[in-house]
Write a structure and sequence with these properties.
homodimer; mainly alpha; Farnesyl Diphosphate Synthase; 1% strand
Chain lengths: 287, 287
């Protein structure tokens, strides 16, 4: 995992050179290179290898997924959205660069993601690149990330049930993880039930990711998390621990890990090892 | 032209169905279907036909270009950017739906654009779709639209020279027009000097578009324009009429039309007719 994360960090650093106009590139680099866990790009590379592809061919796609993730964080943190001051232990992008630059940096990262995949992917059949771009596009828009954030914002201050909570998390978190895995598999030469099995794996992992996030919000301090802790509770926001209780939420997390690894059984266990590892890592992470 | 615009409007309407979450789709449709002049998508279809392609194959790309244009208008109108209340004779998106929805609608339109091209383009070699996606991505990001808006914002209240003004307009306006034409030509089967000739045409047209905009801002009323007139002058913003004088700006516009049509000489005059027409239309438009 560390090797993959290092490769991704090097590729991300090279993907946004510090050129004119300086401020926008500083702002993009500030958030993109802020030391995220790189879960999504690692999943992308791992899925590419799992289906027999060469990891190197999926590096541009892995970077694209992280650019999009970063863009969604920058925009979600804005004052008119979640109004967050702290992200990954540092001031949020708009706190550091101003709102207008933060909005533009997000827009630039989003378009760079697609440019990057289309312009930098090598040794992959073009029809696979086209399929991956279509998949990635639908993961972000009004049927993906944006839909999740929209319903999340609209539900603030209202009573939210488990179904709606799952809708929000599937869209805000799972969709992009799903795209990371599915696009990695498509780039790597995967098709049909192989890709669909990995899609199911990614959906479970995505929801797991969010359930764990909710659990950490109520059990850890801001310092441990690198972001404002207890915020969900303070804002009376719907979370799994609040709707289910903490113990039931932990049980749900266990169930999701189980379902995710079940989907990996169709693969050679050794080749699937990174995906087993990631499921375990997400379930047991402490920040 | 009217036939092309009608086809585009029908395709745009179908590209964003009014589905759940309703509010985000309403917001996207509100701005996308607000009756813009469709100059960019028309250019895209015309370029496709000019190089011998079937217009129908470029419809998804034409829609994508208009989605991106709309997204840039929504984000540029935000309070922390140009803070505009009126656009195409109606309240701006954030005035009608709120800031958070406006930001998300822009993000959704941007990602939908790429999804749409990749998922809906038919009967075009995949490597052409990949090239067009790369071209489109670079037109928007930190070397395209976003760069122009960034420098524009940073230059407010400062003395701006003609070079910087041209940088702003080339990036804010020409880049997307250029992408519209170049992508249309790529989709239509164009390569090499044909595409590069059309790129030069589009650059002239893009700059022309902005020079005419600046001229209209000082010579027309808000009612005639469908947006706040005299705003550039009131805000002491750099414009061609302000830096060159109104007459010199008109002369510059004439020069740009001349250079644009010069690039069309390599083509069959009848087939190039729509592009001649557009150059003339942009030069003589009244709103």
């Amino acid at each position: 995992m560390t090797t993959k994360a290092k490769k991704i960090n090097i590729a991300l650093d090279a993907s946004v050179p510090l050129q004119n106009p300086i401020k926008i590139h500083e702002s993009m680099r500030y958030s993109l290179l802020a030391g995220g866990k790189r879960v999504r790009p690692i999943l992308c590379l791992a899925a590419c290898e799992l289906v027999g592809g060469d990891e190197a061919t999926a590096i541009p796609m892995a970077c694209a997924v992280e650019m999009i993730h970063t863009m969604s964080l920058i925009h979600d943190d804005l004052p008119c959205m979640d109004d967050d001051d702290l992200r990954r232990g540092k001031p949020t992008n708009h706190k550091a660069f101003g709102e207008e630059t933060a909005i533009l940096a997000g827009d630039a990262l989003l378009s760079l993601a697609f440019h990057h995949v289309a312009a930098k992917t090598r040794n992959v059949e073009p029809h696979r690149v086209v399929r991956a771009v279509a998949e990635l596009g639908s993961a972000i828009g009004s049927e993906g990330l944006v839909a999740g954030q929209m319903v999340d914002i609209c539900s603030e201050g209202k009573e939210v049930g488990l179904d709606e909570l799952e809708y929000i998390h599937v869209h805000k978190t799972s969709k992009l993880l799903e795209a990371a895995v599915v696009c990695g598999a498509i780039i790597g030469g995967g098709d049909g039930i192989v890709v669909e099995g990995l899609r199911k794996y990614a959906r479970c992992i995505g929801l797991l990711f969010q359930v764990v996030d909710d659990i950490l919000d109520v059990t850890k301090s801001s310092k441990e998390l690198g972001k404002t802790a207890g915020k969900d509770l303070a804002s009376r926001k719907a979370t799994y621990p609040r709707l289910m209780g903490l113990e039931k939420a932990k049980e749900f997390a266990r169930e999701l890990v189980g379902n995710a690894v079940e989907e990996l059984r169709q693969f050679d266990a050794l080749r699937a090892a990174p995906l087993y590892h990631l499921a375990g890592y997400i379930a047991s992470r402490q920040n």
